[in-house]
């Protein structure tokens, strides 16, 4: 047996908080998730939560003391200077300590040189609902779009202990220069970037212009996408694209954006499509681009496929696999069975409660930890008095604070992450998870811990007695009832978190009636966009808190679930989005969380911080392969995996 693999098996990614969060230490850019482990990998299995986890949460809710806020705020992590950021043209990582020596390497590290050939076998619970990557938020079509079309920039891959690195490397853009004021990006396209058949020509700057205009709907809607992309606001900082020659796109910004390269290289924001899209081919049923793979068709309800593009500009060695086949297998339990049977090469997600059993059942498999940096929270739906269409208990911020005080986050942490049991096995999970604040936990320089921050800790703690007092003062001495929405699509831990929240808050008199929304037909097109009644548990994953703030508090936005449009908040968010000094920007991000805790339009929970995935024994993967992937997520890692012969 390979020594590196044996090491990985025995050590089981013994990860401390320092190593897990080291890669997230990014002054201006906290990235989310790893590989395809993120909110895009749905799972429609609505199996009940494990009884042991429910019991653990109940016990923790009874025994765990409420956190007491102290006067000392979390110490900010030093960040790079604005001068350094200007020189490197990208956000600069914060200084962090070296990881401890006992951290096992993801994927085995030096286990031989990559080899070519074979089919990488994956699974998803459904096939792509929409192939046009600009036209929808489909979590199946978006990754395929990046693989086939390509993006201007690609995130620098990293090993687990280094993930994520705050740098972008060439994609379809071979090199570039950003002016010091951040208002103009001049690039040079890859000289050998070829668009595949039936277009069969070199990619040029007119394709970049076409893609930006089609995605944003500016300066006028494009005929092939009349309403623009549903998330067109992701590129609202882009003004125009000029094309002085075929190799040179010039992107002019409407405002400075310290994350311009990240946003322009994000598969969720925009891939580069040929200007013949809609004429030479129908992008709703076919993909034609300059990416590492070619679309190889689908058998609806059975599978969908990609095959290696022999003319990819990043070759000829990569991509290593001949193709990728994604089988449609509904439910995480069924996917787990197929993985154990050797029919799948990757299990992108499984729960903390399944970790030890999988380790024992498949000692040859590579089980790895991933830092998701997502944010689970409760949003408030109809009726909304702030929109002038009725009233509800949550129209009063005392009720919103009462909901927060009713949450026992220690109990949720224990149950969702199987903390005590995994700690006993040496996984140090308790050091790798925390409480979310008004933005996610785990992003050094930007996150603040409500357990040690006096301002946010006033309302983000567990105090049932105070919760009841606030409800009574707001006119609800007996509490209130409301619908409670979430989806079963994000795995057992996500479902468990929703079920336990509904149980825990009952102690304060809050009766949440669970509605498990169908992910494709209800949760994605309605709930996550604010179209729901009562309360909803939401997952938001984005590579930076600035982007999260923009999504959650500005309109129009398809992620402003509480439908808030407070001019004061919007001004603060716009100020953050335009700030090029990374240290100042981080300080403003910390400050706005303390401002947002009083209105508390969103109530933070604990989910989507730490995940687990596995590769089959026959797979190998570049050690430095982790890149952000989630609700905003840069690129897939299809080019960096191979099958051992």
Tag the structure with descriptive keywords.
single chain, 645 residues, alpha+beta, 5-stranded mixed beta sheet, 4-stranded mixed beta sheet, globular, disordered N terminus
Unreliable residue stretches? 1-54, 56-110, 628-633
Report how far apart the termini are.
14 Å
Decide which structural class fits the backbone: alpha+beta
**How much β-strand is present in the residues?**
15-25%
- Cα shape: globular
The number of E-state strands comes to 22
Give a brief description.
The chain has 645 residues and is an alpha+beta fold.
Structure description:
The chain has 645 residues and is an alpha+beta fold. It has 19 helices and 22 strands. It has a 5-stranded mixed beta sheet. Helix 17 (545-553) packs antiparallel against helix 18 and helix 18 (567-577) runs antiparallel to helix 19 (582-596). The longest helix has 15 residues, at 582-596. The chain is globular and about 70 Å long. The two termini are 14 Å apart. The relative contact order is 0.20. The model is unreliable at 1-54, 56-110 and 628-633 (pLDDT under 50).
């Amino acid at each position: 047996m390979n020594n590196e693999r044996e090491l990985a098996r025995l050590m089981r990614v013994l990860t401390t908080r320092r190593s897990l969060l080291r890669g997230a230490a990014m002054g201006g850019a906290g990235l989310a998730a790893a590989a395809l482990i993120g909110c895009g990998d749905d799972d429609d299995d609505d199996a009940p939560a494990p009884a042991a986890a429910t019991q653990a949460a109940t016990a923790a809710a009874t025994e765990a003391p409420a956190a007491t806020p102290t006067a000392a705020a979390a110490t900010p992590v030093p960040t790079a200077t604005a001068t350094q950021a200007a020189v490197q043209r990208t956000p600069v990582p914060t200084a962090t300590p070296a990881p401890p020596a006992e951290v096992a390497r993801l994927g085995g590290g030096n286990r031989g040189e990559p080899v070519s050939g074979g089919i990488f076998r994956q699974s998803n619970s459904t096939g792509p609902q929409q192939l046009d990557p600009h036209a929808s938020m489909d979590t199946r079509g978006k990754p395929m779009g990046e693989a086939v079309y390509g993006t201007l920039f690609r995130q620098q891959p990293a090993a687990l202990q280094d993930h994520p690195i705050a740098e972008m490397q060439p994609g379809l853009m071979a090199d570039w220069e950003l002016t010091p004021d951040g208002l103009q990006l001049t690039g040079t396209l890859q000289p050998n970037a070829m668009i595949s058949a039936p277009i069969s020509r070199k990619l040029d700057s007119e394709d970049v212009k076409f893609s930006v205009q089609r995605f944003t709907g500016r300066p006028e809607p494009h005929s092939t996408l009349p309403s623009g992309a549903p998330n067109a606001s992701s590129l609202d900082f882009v003004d125009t694209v000029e094309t002085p020659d075929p190799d040179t796109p010039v992107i002019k910004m409407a405002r400075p954006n310290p994350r311009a390269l990240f946003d322009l290289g994000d598969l969720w924001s925009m891939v580069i499509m040929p200007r013949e899209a809609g004429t030479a081919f129908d992008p709703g049923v076919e993909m034609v681009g300059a990416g590492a793979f070619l679309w190889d068709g689908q058998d609806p309800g059975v599978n969908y496929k990609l095959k290696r593009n022999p003319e990819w500009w990043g070759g000829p060695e990569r991509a290593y696999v001949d193709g990728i086949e994604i089988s449609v297998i509904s439910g995480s339990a069924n996917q787990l069975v197929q993985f154990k049977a050797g029919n799948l090469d990757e299990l992108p997600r499984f729960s903390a409660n399944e970790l030890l059993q999988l380790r024992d059942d498949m000692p040859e498999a590579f089980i790895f930890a991933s830092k998701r940096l997502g944010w689970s929270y409760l949003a408030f739906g109809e009726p909304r008095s702030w929109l002038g269409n009725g009233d509800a208990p949550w129209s009063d911020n005392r009720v919103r604070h009462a909901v927060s005080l009713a949450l026992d986050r220690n109990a949720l942490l224990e149950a969702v992450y199987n903390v005590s049991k995994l700690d006993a096995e040496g996984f140090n999970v308790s050091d790798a998870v925390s409480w979310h604040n008004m933005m996610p936990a785990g992003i050094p320089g930007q996150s603040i811990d409500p357990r040690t921050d006096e301002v946010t800790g006033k309302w983000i703690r567990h105090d049932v007695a105070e919760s009841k007092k606030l409800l009574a003062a707001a006119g609800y001495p007996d509490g209130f009832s409301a619908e409670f929405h979430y989806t079963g699509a994000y795995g057992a831990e996500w479902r468990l978190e929703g079920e336990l929240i509904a149980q825990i808050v009952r102690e304060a008199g809050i009766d949440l009636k669970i509605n498990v929304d169908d992910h494709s037909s209800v949760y994605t097109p309605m709930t996550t966009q604010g179209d729901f009644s009562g309360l909803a548990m939401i997952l938001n994953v984005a590579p930076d808190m600035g982007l999260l703030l923009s999504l959650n508090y500005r309109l129009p936005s398809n992620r402003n679930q509480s439908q808030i449009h407070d001019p004061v908040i919007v001004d603060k968010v716009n100020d953050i989005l335009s700030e090029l000094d990374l240290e100042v920007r981080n300080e403003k991000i910390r400050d706005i969380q303390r401002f947002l805790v009083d209105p508390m339009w969103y109530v933070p929970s604990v989910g989507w911080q730490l995940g687990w995935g596995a590769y089959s024994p026959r797979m190998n993967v570049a050690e430095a392969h982790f890149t952000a992937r989630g609700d905003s997520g840069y690129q897939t890692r299809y080019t960096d995996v191979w099958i051992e012969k």
